[in-house]
Design a protein that fits this description.
Helix content: 40-55%
Low-confidence stretches: none
Number of strands: 4
Strand content: 5-15%
Order of helices and strands: HEHEHEHEHHHH
Strand order of the largest sheet: 1-2
Structural class: mainly alpha
Mean pLDDT: 88
Radius of gyration: 18 Å
Largest sheet: 2 strands, parallel
Shape: globular
Length: 167
């Protein structure tokens, strides 16, 4: 019973979903509160994973996931994890090693061949996100806001974050 309680209390079934928005993250408290619970929102000027953002992702997504697995008793301190990525910065690699993550580096200029963005899981997420968007647009008021460009950048980020998290 105690083991089951630990499992239920701490285990994160998957690493937290994460979305990267363009900008610096200088947003209102209202917008932050409108993001779904459990979604990690990161910010980068061009919305891509550079060195600082890779570290932030590792600290905000991978570390809590491994901590949760250990607290739940489904992973021990010597259990290892495998991560496929292309980051080569020593600070990032050393941080992951501290958390028992072995990195498998992708070949240069080949990430598009192995990233699941347009195939597999990534495609399914896009399909479900599109369905959520279509359902939202079925409301005439929402469609008018969309067509008249009455949505602020904050409105669009909140919608996208919620659709993505639901997907």
């Amino acid at each position: 019973a105690a083991a089951r309680r630990l499992y239920d209390e701490f285990l994160l079934q998957q690493p937290a979903p994460c979305i990267i928005f363009r900008g610096k993250g200088n947003i209102s408290a209202e917008e932050r509160e409108a993001y779904p619970e459990g979604l990690v929102v990161l910010w980068q000027d061009k919305a891509w994973v550079d060195r600082p953002l890779a570290m932030e992702w590792a600290e905000d997504v991978i570390k809590p996931f491994i901590e949760a697995e250990r607290k739940a008793g489904v992973a021990g301190a010597t259990d290892r994890y495998l991560l496929f990525d292309s980051q080569k910065q020593p600070r990032y690699i050393n941080f992951l090693k501290e958390w028992a993550v072995d990195g498998h580096k992708l070949p240069p200029n080949e990430t598009d061949q192995v990233q699941p963005i347009d195939r597999g899981l990534g495609r399914q997420v896009k399909i479900y996100l599109g369905q959520a968007m279509d359902q939202w647009l079925d409301d005439d008021d929402n469609l008018t806001k969309w067509e008249d460009n009455d949505l602020t950048a904050s409105d669009r980020r909140i919608l996208l974050a919620n659709w993505y998290h639901g997907a």
